[in-house]
Amino acid sequence: MAVRTTLGIDIGTSSSKGVLVDGDGVIVATAVRAHDVSRPHSGWVEMDASIWWDEFVDIARELCSAAPEAEVAAVGVSGMGPCVLLADEHDDPVRPAILYGVDTRATAQIERITRELGADEITRVGGSLLTSQSAGPKIAWVAETEPAAWDRARRLFMPASWLARKLTGEYVLDHQSASQSSPLYDIEREAWHAQWWERYAAPLEPPRLGWAGDLAGRVTADAAAETGLAEGTPVTIGTIDAWTEAVSVDAHGSGDLMLMYGTTMFLVATGDETLRTPSMWTTAGAFPGSRNLAGGLSTSGALTAWLKGLTGADYPELLAAAEAAGPGARGLLMLPYFAGERTPIQDPDARGVVAGLTVEHGRGELYRAALEATAFGVRHNVETMRAAGADIRRIVAVGGGTQGQLWLQIVSDVTGLAQQVPETTIGASFGAAYLAAAAIGEAPGSIAAWNPIAATITPHTEHAARYDELYGQYLRLYAGTREVVHELAAAQRLS
């Protein structure tokens, strides 16, 4: 007897993940494909969009083969973002996709467009200042620096919308992703800003807008032949992975903060009001009527992976050594800005700093300092969100990093906040599968029925004083090294 399932696939920074989920929220099968980004120059982070579709096809075929009794009733898509993938009229990419805020190439365009439109007007219309997270300046960068590619460009895609296009033939983008395409989107009108689109994005055709859980269309005959999915299967519009992760753990209600532990760290606070602050990102939510104040660290899991490769140790060894190092890492303090930083400092020229290092320190202290550095970054973001008016009453953790108890505990100890950890933390692919089930009326009213809270991490109050002291030093360390670090970043761009 066939088991009705939904397929959720997410295209992430370091891997693509897929799940088949039945009507009770039970994961029937999973699949992963690892990949790498390209860094052709300092500050550039790109990816060949063919990876997105090829891995979708591989994962879909693997999952369907692993569970031949499963009938895929609907497909949910998700992906990192906001990205800029420009394609011609035949949907052939004109260049590799430019990734989200970790790509910092468009600094000159950010400055120029801000001068032309005015910071206050950009914030009034779009909700946020232009930063390395904004898609608009990256589109302008292509127009100004790669005229041959720009002459061919006709459409704008992000990973989820690219998958929807390949599956259904529909050209559509969700409101949440659009709201991170500043200055091209009007957040209060929930529509493209026609005048600014014409000024900075012509001759691109604006994609039709919808919400993450809306249906983009149905699987075409050509896509069915490639993927093994049945022709006519419904496909959702989808959205950016962090927002799909929030859906996966039921952390998209007013007062919720989703904390995503991944290659980068992402925070999404949800409310009913459009909050504006220069150091965070104001966006539309995944669902109609919701608004978010969001932030992100440019490195978190990427930093721990870097240390793993540098030391040659495996994660269990590093975690054991880090736990033995104790709070404060025996006098080490790190700034985690190894790829610049997004929020709240919005400094693409920030760089990593390790202070207090001696020949007596080892890999355990370095790994502990890296975990604590990301925790200080989370605290900085949470305090900035609250200062802007965010009402944060509940924190839910999600992502691959939640498998490590020590990292979770350090974040709670540094912030003084409890974190709820759900039963399933696989992330955006699970949320995408839920949205697909909801779109065809086959999901419970809340994903909490699929994914209940399994544990709560509470702060160790005995560490509060030490971490308060270190957090103050963390803020001072950035201020004290910023000028020198910016000079080094300028030299790196010339190398």
From TrEMBL:
Residue span(s) of domain Carbohydrate kinase FGGY N-terminal: 6-243
Family per record: Belongs to the FGGY kinase family.
MF terms in GO: kinase activity
Keyword tags: Carbohydrate metabolism, Kinase, Transferase, Xylose metabolism
Positions of the Carbohydrate kinase FGGY C-terminal domain: 258-439
Name of the protein this chain belongs to: FGGY-family carbohydrate kinase
Biological classification of the source: Bacteria, Bacillati, Actinomycetota, Actinomycetes, Micrococcales
InterPro entries: ATPase_NBD, Carb_kinase_FGGY, Carb_kinase_FGGY_CS, FGGY_C, FGGY_Carb_Kinase, FGGY_N
Database matches in Gene3D superfamilies: 3.30.420.40
UniProt-listed Enzyme Commission number(s): 2.7.1.-
Principal EC category: transferase
Entry superkingdom: Bacteria
Organism encoding this protein: Leucobacter albus
PROSITE patterns: FGGY_KINASES_2
